[in-house]
Write a structure and sequence with these properties.
The chain has 2 domains: 219 residues, Type I PLP-dependent aspartate aminotransferase-like (Major domain) (Aspartate Aminotransferase, domain 2, 3-Layer(aba) Sandwich); 113 residues, Alpha-Beta Complex (Aspartate Aminotransferase, domain 1), CATH 3.90.1150.10. The protein is 39% helix and 15% strand. The protein has a 7-stranded mixed sheet with strand order 1-9-8-5-4-2-3, with helices on both faces. Strand 2, helix 4 and strand 3 form a beta-alpha-beta unit. Helix 2 packs parallel to helix 8.
Length: 349
């Protein structure tokens, strides 16, 4: 019998999650209701924002954030090329023009210098992902005078100079997909201190029972999802502590391996949603070797956005894509799995 593969990522669930969802089911109220409202309130308190609106996905959250800023056709939105295509989709939903920028080669986050060169009079927003759990240089990006949307899909619980990521930009968005920092299976949330922006978002996420007609969306979260989110949120600190312990072990065990380790953020700001190493050769070579040894690795970004759009340039993004490799790191990893991952990585490198 073949040995089970260690997956690149998986949810971290326990009996308390099952009890929470079961209680929501027994209540008989399954759609958007009290559990959603409580989840919004608690996450806003954790992050340090005044208002929150839960949504059906992280992409929906980002789409609503862009709409709240009245972004439309002929407007420009800056985003990195080295990011999930869902971010590009949200920009295209508004018919705005995506303007791609290159990255910092150490953190993989948006390069403030590249963003500065990309800003024009048409620029209406900058989407700032805190990639792989590593906070972006939000201070320098804030100096550009353009509304910032923090994309915290991979960085819930990370901090930047003592501030929670998601608490600095005009708007921030979160994702709770199955393998995110916490999960609601699918789901997302928008946070902001602006009452007017959040009023627009709440209006647009639900199309029914309105006095007027305008294009609105079915972007609601339901109480079953929110009950799971509340249960997961109560363990957020434990999840992050576990991630950091595993990362610390990897740093120690891999210090003599033939690859570059992830950036180490001072002040324990990184949550290590992904443990991304930089390989000497193309990452595909090592992905195959890992797979044969029953450990699943991944390119952390499937394909850069400028490749999809057939745009030239972006040398730092291409270098990162060719030579970056993400290895398993998540709270539900067992001790024996961690030991095997370490042994396999040492064998290969």
């Amino acid at each position: 019998m073949a040995q089970a593969i260690i997956p690149h990522s998986r949810p971290s669930l326990d009996r308390s999650d099952i009890r929470a969802v079961g209680a929501a089911m027994r209540s008989g109220f399954l759609s958007q209701g009290g559990e959603v409202h409580e989840f919004e309130k608690r996450l806003a308190r954790v992050i340090g924002k005044k208002n929150a609106a839960a949504t059906s996905s992280g992409t929906a959250a980002l789409h609503l954030a862009l709409l709240a800023l009245d972004i439309k056709e002929n407007d420009e939105v800056i985003l990195p090329s080295f990011v999930c295509s869902a971010v590009l989709n949200a920009v295209h939903y508004t018919r705005a023009t995506p303007v791609l920028a290159d990255i910092d080669p150490l953190t993989f986050n948006l390069s403030p210098e590249a963003v500065r060169r990309a800003v024009t009079r048409k620029t209406k927003a900058i989407i700032v992902p805190h990639l792989f759990g590593c906070p972006a240089d939000i201070d320098r990006l804030s100096e550009l005078g353009v509304p910032l949307i923090e994309d915290c899909a991979q960085a819930l619980g990370a901090t930047f100079r003592g501030c929670n990521v998601g608490s600095i930009g005009l708007l921030s968005v979160f994702s709770f997909y199955a393998t995110k920092v916490i999960t609601t299976a699918e789901g997302g949330m928008v946070l902001s201190d602006s009452k007017s922006l959040m009023a627009k978002i709440r209006d647009l996420r639900d199309y029914d029972n309105k006095k007027d007609y305008r294009l609105r969306y079915n972007y609601k979260m339901n109480d079953l999802q929110a009950s799971l989110g509340l249960s997961q949120l109560s363990r957020l600190e434990a999840f992050i502590a576990r991630r950091r312990r595993i990362a610390a072990l990897y740093f120690e065990e891999f210090k003599d391996c033939r690859f570059s380790l992830p950036v180490w953020k001072e002040g324990n700001e990184h949550i290590y949603y992904r443990f991304v190493i930089r390989t000497e050769k193309d990452a595909s070579t090592y992905l195959e070797k890992l797979q044969r040894r029953r450990v699943q690795g991944r390119r952390p970004i499937y394909r850069p956005l400028h490749v999809y759009l057939r745009l030239p340039g972006f040398p730092r993004t291409m270098a990162a894509w060719r030579r970056s490799l993400s290895i398993p790191l998540y709270p539900s990893l067992k001790k024996t799995e961690i030991e095997k991952i370490i042994a396999v990585i040492k064998e290969i490198f």
